[in-house]
Amino acid sequence: MFKRSLLPSVAAILAAIGFSALTTAARADDAAIAAKEQACSACHGQSGTPISATFPIIWGQQSNYLYKELHDFHSGDRQSPVMAPLVQGTSLDDLRALADYFAAKPWPTKLASNGAPTSAAAPPEAIATKIQMCKACHQANFEGGAPAPRLAGLSYEYLRSAMNAFADGQRTNNLDMPGFMKALTESERDAMAKYLAGL
After folding, report:
1. pTM above 0.85?
2. CA angle at residue 105 from 104 to 111, to 5 degrees?
3. Could you tell me which residues come within 8 angstroms of residue 83 by beta carbon, excluding any fewer than 6 positions away?
């Protein structure tokens, strides 16, 4: 009789210990992600707006794309003297958690001088046909989708730099982009960057 009444309480204690361990581990994981998020925010911004136009917006960016880029910095498939040291000591699971964390944030709203959201005009005629080709991966409004990133609203400086890096072979961690960017003239890439930044 004593042994039977003892069994449920032992099971309850073991379950409570297990739950407590899981909760503690989850809190530790959350704290680790929060610490890494702070490191990211040093350049990418506390409120989603990067501290420099040469850095990309990561708040609200596609999770799969963010993870791919973090993975590529981690593996060395994409080179960066800043990003590589930050992610190489981080587990792939934590990189996935970081990508999901930033993807869940709202994309920063770009406002005109009167406080209203901005809107872009139609693309210049010189690039109209070529910019349409981008929609196959980056979606109709250039807001991205698996596997392509959002382009609409990234800074002109960042977009131009990324396009040129693909064109001149500095960035090779994508199968399609180098060839596409090489086929464009520098002025076409410049016009595309201006158009996409204005969306």
Report:
1. no
2. 140
3. 73
Exposure b/e, 22-33, CB count within 10 A at least 16 = b: eeeeeeeeeeeb
Neighbours of 183 (CB within 10 A): 11
Q: Give all strands (DSSP E) within 16-66, no chain letters.
A: none
Residues in the chain predicted with pLDDT less than 70, given as ranges, are: 1-29, 111-120
b/e burial code for range 46-77 (CB count within 10 A of at least 16 → b): eebebeebebbbbbbbbbbbbbbbbbbbbeee
Q: Based on C-alpha coordinates, what's the Rg of the chain?
A: 22
Which structure tokens are listed for 74? 């981690």
Query: Tens of pLDDT along 146-183?
Result: 879 999 999 999 999 999 999 999 999 999 999 999 99
Partners of 145 in the β-ladder: 148
